Amino acid sequence: xxxxxxxxxxxxxxxxxxxxxxxxxxxxxxxxxxxxxxxxxxxxxxxxxxxxxxxxxxxxxxxxxxxxxxxxxxxxxxxxxxxxxxxxxxxxxxxxxxxxxxxxxxxxxxxxxxxxxxxxxxxxxxxxxxxxxxxxxxxxxxxxxxxxxxxxxxxxxxxxxxxxxxxxxxxxxxxxxxxxxxxxxxxxxxxxxxxxxxxxxxxxxxxxxxxxxxxxxxxxxxxxxxxxxxxxxxxxxxxxxxxxxxxxxxxxxxxxxxxxxxxxxxxxxxxxxxxxxxxxxxxxxxxxxxxxxxxxxxxxxxxxxxxxxxxxxxxxxxxxxxxxxxxxxxxxxxxxxxxxxxxxxxx
Length: 347
Description:
This protein is of the alpha+beta class.
């Protein structure tokens, strides 16, 4: 692995993805992977990183998106069978910070890591057909100033706009957003959110999803409230669903499950949230086969007799087109194309 420029880790990119699929090689991501998101509050204390790695092993997650790691600068490091990519503040302050922890069995699929700032980073995974971009973000809390929120959402919207549309885009993060269950926002949101009313961050998140064509997958799965809750207050009574998973509308069927797990705390007020991702292709793509192109032996046209016969037959077909004055341009063009190709293949 080589560090390319500021904040970008780029790995080797496989080629001929479509050809590999046609030849029967299944995309790695089609078999399914587990992606988690967790606001750990800090990794800047003794034992925190090891506790995190133990939790990943316990829940067998392939990729874990982290928020509030509170490590400065950006980079990557390896510990045991996990590789950590992180993006923090450039002024050396131990605030905010986001990153990913990737297991060795998934590391070969990592094509690029981009550290945008201390609140946003993303990772690009490769498969035989589609690449997947997982964006990890840590949104400002509800009480933050308007300009801070605007700056964050503008930057996040820019990332979603500028990353390749050929990739499957997944947004997984701590948005500090409570999402309501209003029918007016269907199908962007589902009927199974924990909350009845959105807060300001929730409204902003819904608007972001509508603008960029995303579905809030974390509001679609019918579960008990304890599996929807992702944050618990100090009084141990107030519990909210503020960590979310989103995916582009056209790929929403790839998200198979979203739920929180209460068995790990890591001295955090957030629960671990895990989603199961399985790349699905439409039946149209699965049935695609190569079509042999017809090759014409145009050298035969150099023979006078063959050329004259070709011209005669083609003119006969074209005269049929001219005989129908009411025929539209598309049909006339179809007749011309047929005349040229049929007579060519007959030579």
